[in-house]
Fold these 3 entries.
Entry 1:
Amino acid sequence: MDTPPGPTPFRNAGEREQERAAKRDAVLRAAVRMFNERGFHTTSLDDVAASLQISKPLIYHYLGAKDQVLFECLRLGLTRLREAAEAAAAQPGTGLERLKYFLRRYGEVIMDDFGRCVVRTDDEALSTASRAKVRAMKREIDQGLRRLMEEAVADGSACIGDIKLTTFAFTGALSWTMRWHKPEGGMPPGEIAGRLVDILIRGIEPRG
């Protein structure tokens, strides 16, 4: 009778990929927090490596040069905002309810490390190709928000005289949380976002 194979000390391909993804995520999280706290230009990859007690070449191995690290941080934040817009568009209910859903998620994402980086960090440090991708994603999110507003106006659940200006006002108010929100604060991001959105929405609810 064949003896069944015992446990192997060698990781399979799936385990190696999981480990790589976990290490890459740890590098990104350390980098984005430093970019947010110190500023992109005053943070070096040596700083990021030292905070994780790894070598700088290891960061290059997982992510590439400093501008590539920034691009990935921005891409993650923008991807979460885009997913929020897509999820909002698929929600049942009135246009105003879908709009509120997106705005609340927008507020929550902006208070996360990667969302905060989208607001705090200029994309001028990126390569031309990466900058174009980031700006295209920002336009897509902006257009998604405007469509939600248009739908709310069309079904009569919202009264918005100037959609472009209202978009700037709402995103500006929600984005400003990155200046004063403290992760260690007593109120969780979801509650902060919900209260802010309730205040903003009152300005576009139909009267009478």
Entry 2:
Amino acid sequence: MNATEKFSVTKVEGHLANEVSDLLCVEEMLSISVNGNSYTITMRTPGFEEQLTRGILLSEDVYMNRDVHPDFSITEKNQHGIVTKVNVLIPLSALQQGINQRRNLLSVSSCGMCGKYEMDLTLHGLIEQQETLSSSLIEVMFEQMASCQHDFAKTGGCHASALCTIDGMLLDCKEDIGRHNAVDKVIGSLLLQHRLHEAKVMLVSGRVSYEIVSKAHKAGIPILCSVSAPSSMAVDYCKQHGITLLAFCRGSRFTIYSNGERIVFS
């Protein structure tokens, strides 16, 4: 899958320098076209291209049908065999407004909003699911996600996102150099498996900003948990749209920022 690559580096400790091998997380361009027309270019870790594309189409309001998946094809690979271009075929009648917000620049691995012609930050609808989550499961779910972070263990440079049931069962986990790409990959993976409706909790390994909240909302996930900090906008949107936001989830500790009534202490 070419997710990591070996480099020769010089490691310095005190006054001693040694030549050693180091593994880095691969970052490569992926160009996504819809019906043969360029839609976006994103920088990501190679692998799970169909899942990534499927997640992007949902989170960007391009194709919202969760039951019928568009025809997906790989149209180009580079000299290393890494997929660089893909295309999806979607009936014109099924395309949503997101297709009109094509990006004029690439989406870098650190930002899922970069390059958009227009910035429509409106989220529509309130997530009203009333399932409650036992506080004791939060640490367990993060331990499950950590056990799947193989590329992070090798490089220290990959983010992860996982989706779980309300009972704490891990449904899927994906890694990527970009936080938002990891989220799109895991959402797209469950979409392709027709299991996204089972997911009630999203875990992310990095900070929570608007684009992560937006993706959770589009996927209908009521509980969002992070090991790091949220932004002020993320908290505001979670409060307004019915998402329970937990951050600084480390061991048995966490901070509730919004809609804490879904958390049952046990």
Entry 3:
Amino acid sequence: MPERILVIAAHADDEALGCGGTIARHLAQGDTVHLVFMADGVGSRRGDDLAAERHARDTARDRALAALGVASWVSFGLADNQMDALPLLDVVQPLERAIAAFDPHVVYSHHAGDLNIDHRITHQAVMTACRPLPGRTLREILAFEVPSSTEWAPAGLPPFVPDVFVDITATWPAKRAALDAYADELRPAPHARSLPAIEALATWRGHSVGLAKAEAFMLQRRIVR
């Protein structure tokens, strides 16, 4: 049976970095995928023309989602790297409405221990909005890793210890095309958010479980009915 998959990302590019191959795999399997972007991704920058940067980021997002095959998404447009300044309720309530409207079977989102504050607030909001209430369709929540945030977290935050691995060997080209769309957000090697590093991570995650390429996740909740 086709499933409804919801990906909740703090910023446009996190979806491609964290689970782009898995998104493309779900779509290839006939599942329905919807994305929620929490923050605008550029508001904290010090460029001379934020409007131009926002337009460029939106254009990159549209190209990346087209590369993955995603046609359904919404952006809340919260201030970049300032989500911790908002009452959690102001973050949770629009997310609850989006979740109720889409009624997902599976949710993918950020890890609780990422260095980026928007990632951590997104994780907290997701777990709050996805409280396991009676009658919910949602059966599984998975946390993804984002290069240059997850592995950069200090020791006091919870570590990312993956226990779910998704084979993205066949969908790596789609993930790579989405990453190419976000070229302005990537960095030259040997940066952790460079294309060689991202491919090396996919290869390592795959080889660690006997696959050519994989994306890794931490299971946050699974309900077996």
